[in-house]
Write a structure and sequence with these properties.
This protein is of the alpha+beta class. It is built from 7 helices and 10 strands.
Amino acid sequence: MICPSCETEYERLGSHWYWNEGHRPALTDYQREIITGLMMSDGTLERGGENPFLTVSMITKEYIDWLDVTFTHFSTGTDLHRTASEKAKDRRKYGFDESASSKDYHNMWRFRTCSLPELSDFNWYTGDSGKKVWPEDIDLTPTVLTHWFVGDGHWKNRESSDHISIAASNEFENKDKIDNYFTQANLPTPSNYNKYKTNNTQNMELEFTVEDSYTIFEYMDPAPPGFGYKFPDEYISTE
């Protein structure tokens, strides 16, 4: 990878920046907003050394490849994290589904950034449990909401009753905080907080009315690659 400051190629750009801090560019506002949305959904902050790095794993390869391009020199690339066969094997091994077959699963792809001190701003994990707790002051910009939605949201397309739902299980007790995110963005708040248990785990989904769902689609960025199925046709980018 080539350092944009000294235009020299390095095998590990993060290590070069660690010893030459003046060469390390800052994340753009757009990239930081994407990270915020990812941390509200499928993003995980990990630490292999002094500075953390971001990882995102999912089956939607088009999106993983898009993250790689969008984060330019901050990305360490993408890889096949787990195959469908490996996932099925684990399901059989641990007794979840003795008949699990690779045809029932998908390959899991992974995107990873290099280690960056700026990512410490996204260390939302608390206590010994390592539970992720969202900050009170998240600015729910169109980009933040888009990348939260594509990771943990659904468009329940049921013709006359089609509507958006977004998972927020780690904020099970924080309805007021979530309402405030939407209020501060001049968006409608969820019409229902659907709470339920699976395997003794508390889950929660935010649900919106049909009308409010289209207000949110109008507000968000166009669907990123791989997630057009979560958006009505008019909100899918043709670029």
